[in-house]
Write a structure and sequence with these properties.
By secondary structure, this protein is an alpha/beta fold. The protein has 9 helices and 8 strands. It comes from Anaerosacchariphilus polymeriproducens.
Length: 255
């Protein structure tokens, strides 16, 4: 009988599912990992709800890093942040393959395996979206001195892009709001960034920008339109370089 482990859609949730599935000793061929919200119950299958456990998730993460290499762990972690109903099971299959290999760090070369191939594709998708997002995030200075940015990514990008901005803006108070997930990445000056959820955004506060910010925005918009040459506009290339879904939160396109 197939045993389906129902995981929370998070990195810790999926890694806990991997731990519980492996520890069940029911045989890898008889185990399937699914996200709780994506599940459709089937006959002749046993369902087990996975309770997310940070300690179990850490053990899986450490095992993957030590036995499969850091590169494999990075690919798997990126895949866990993607939007895909089948990512949990693909991650489980990849870890099974990786731990069975004789040579460390070769699992992502096994692209003939469907699970590994899916993890590789998801990882690449998340990487490209994060790379785009790093270039097009626009912070604005609020009256309270905090730099605020709003994003609406497909993937869960805050764990990837937050270290990037913490490294580049270590002496600033800033926050990035993922409106698709209701999550905040918050960084206080000279401190580590943290993820915060279940907090209501104060619309009045984020709409009150500083006087300096008003001047900078006007100057930037003026520069953006001044350097534009109407005869050389290429909308197809523009859409390729800056997808339309990013533009709502990009200053240059908010006249």
């Amino acid at each position: 009988m197939e045993t389906v482990f129902l995981c929370e859609d998070s990195m810790e949730g999926i890694f806990t599912g991997v731990y519980d599935g492996w520890a069940s000793k029911k045989g890898h061929a008889n185990i399937k990992l699914e996200l709780k919200q994506c599940n459709t119950f089937r006959l002749f299958a046993e369902y087990i709800n996975v309770k997310t456990d940070a300690q179990k998730a850490r053990k899986v993460s450490d095992t993957v890093k030590n036995k499969m290499g850091e590169e494999a762990l990075i690919h798997i972690m990126r895949a866990a942040l993607a939007v895909d109903d089948e990512k949990a099971d693909a991650i489980y299959r990849t870890i099974v393959v990786g731990l069975a290999l004789k040579y460390k760090g070769k699992v992502m070369d096994c692209l003939s395996n469907p699970g590994v191939l899916k993890v590789f594709k998801l990882s690449r998708t998340v990487f490209y979206e994060a790379d785009h997002m790093k270039g097009f995030i626009r912070f604005k200075e609020l009256q309270n001195g905090v730099y605020f940015a709003k994003i609406a990514p497909k993937s869960h990008l805050l764990p990837i892009i937050s270290p990037h901005f913490a490294d580049r803006l270590p002496n600033e108070n800033w926050m990035i709001y993922d409106e698709n997930r209701g999550l905040f990445s918050i960084h206080a000056k000279q401190k580590e960034w943290v993820l915060v959820e279940d907090e209501q955004i104060n619309i009045d506060t984020i709409n009150k920008i500083s006087e300096n910010e008003e001047r900078i925005q006007e100057l930037w918009k003026c520069f953006f339109h001044t350097v534009s040459i109407k005869e050389r506009e290429n909308y197809n290339l523009q859409r390729k370089n800056l997808p339309i879904r990013f533009r709502e939160n990009v200053l240059e396109f908010n006249n």
